[in-house]
Amino acid sequence: MNDRFILDTAVRDNFFSVIESLLFVYGDPISLKDISDVLEEKEDFVKSLMDEFELLYKNSDRGLKVFNIDGKYQFGTKPENEKYIVRLLKTNQRQSLSQAAIETLSIISYKQPVTRVEIEEIRGVRSDKAIQTLLDKDLIKESGRLEAIGRPILYGTTDNFLKQFGIEKLEELPVLDDVELDD
User: Fold this and answer.
1) Chain-centroid distance, C-alpha 158
2) Which portions of the chain are predicted below pLDDT 50?
3) Taking a C-beta distance cutoff of 8 angstroms, is the pair 157, 139 a contact?
4) Whole domain around residue 138: which residue ranges?
5) Looking at the domain assignment, is residue 89 inside a domain?
6) Within 13 A of 37's CA, how many CA atoms are on the CB side?
7) What pLDDT does 182 receive?
8) Contact at 8 Å (CB) between 57 and 66?
9) Which residues pair with 141 in a beta bridge?
10) Taking burial as the number of CB atoms within 10 A of a residue's CB, which of 24, 39, 169, 177 is the most buried?
């Protein structure tokens, strides 16, 4: 194990090369612990490497970005390159959301886990289609069942939601002022 935080350039670059390969090959978000285990280094040391690695990609002209989502790391493409990727794939993956989907996503992101009935009580209208759209776009997921009659599905946001909105964890969502609803 290694406690050093100051590395010579060749050693640092070797770690970066390995980390880059891990993120590329793994595809899914990978935890700091998993990276530390693979590198056989302490987590605090690897965290300092990852902070520097993120800056390397952030401050470069590369087409990739390192996403840190709730302590897990993943490569993704920079948002400014989206139009070229869409042309390549010949599909528009980032179609805008309807007003109903935006309202539903907002409710889920702030009140999760939440049931469809709770969403509909807040919105005042049915939300089946909006929920299905958000599921299809991998912005929300089924996160369990409520221990109540009928065991309704609970919904929560996904890591893709965090990535799409450029946040690392839900605590970074803007704070809503307390609003009293008139019944």
Assistant:
1) 6
2) 1-5, 178-183
3) yes
4) 99-172
5) no
6) 5
7) 42
8) yes
9) 156
10) 39
- CA distances from residue 182 to 88, 93, 179 in whole angstroms, order as listed: 50, 39, 10
The β-bridge partners of 157 are 140
Q: What is the CATH number of the domain that holds 133?
A: 1.10.10.10
CA atoms of 32 and 11, how far apart (whole Å): 19
Two structure tokens written together for 32: 């700091």
Interval 118-141: pLDDT, tens:
999 998 898 999 999 999 999 999
Under DSSP, is residue 65 helix (H, G, I), strand (E, B) or coil? Answer: strand
Number of independent structural domains in the chain? 2
Lookup result for tokens 């528009």: 92
DSSP tag of 173: S
Distance CA 53, CA 41 (A): 16
Residue type, 41: E
What are the strands of the beta sheet with 64-69, ordered from one edge?
A: 30-31, 72-77, 64-69
Which uninterrupted H or E stretch holds 144? Answer: strand 140-145
Domain final position from 81, 113, 135: 81
pTM of the model: 0.55
